[in-house]
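Known limitations

Structure tokens in this collection are predictions and should be treated as such. Users comparing against experimental data should check residue numbering before alignment. To illustrate the layout, the record for ATP binding protein is reproduced below. The input appears on top and the generated tokens appear beneath it.
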Amino acid sequence: MKATILFTGGKDSTYALHLAYLQGFDIVVLSTIYPLYEYSMLYHKPIFDLLRLQAKSLGLPLESMAVYSPKQELSTLYKLLKRVKENYGVEAVVSGAVLSDYQRMRYSMICDELGLEPYTPLWRIDQSKYMFELVEHGIEFILISINTYGLPMKLLGKIITDKDVYEIINRSRKYGFNPAFEGGEAETLVVNSPLFRRRIRVIGRRMIKSPYEGVFIIDSYGFQ
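Generated tokens:
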């Protein structure tokens, strides 16, 4: 079945792409909504230049649309998926929704309107187990922002390992945040996966704003 994936370049959409491929979906195009405002409950804000590099590494075309306000989120998604369906003949839409009913219900609603089959392989997955699965399946990712107390700033810009996952889970129990960052505690960027043809190299620096807020500023990037 031909499919597109709602792709952000983070761990969730990349792993959903990986699982969909293993389930036999023919992923023919990446679909991305780019919010031009600070906070969206429906979409993550991708780093667009890096997104294009990820698409090139995956060997897939990237279709995108900007959205200018929260009121336009659903109509923009409808327009994007309609265009993708017409141009690529897709029959299904894969998403990396894990815990958000808000996201999953709205994605499903748009799919129903367009006659597309929604597929959410990560839905309600055990959060701690999921973090270990990412590492075990070769999803290499870094944290590019931290927005919660208890996550160590040393993880910014670092490829997350099994050892880091243990620390994240232990700290999530101590400080009460979601270990898979489903509450917006951190944002991730994938630099390599089994479906990538080339690994992505990023060079940057940590900027610590407070004990619970930091970002990894990317100064340069390219294929390794």
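For this record: The domain at 138-223 is CATH 3.90.1490.10 (putative n-type atp pyrophosphatase, domain 2). The chain has six helices and nine strands. Please report discrepancies through the issue tracker.
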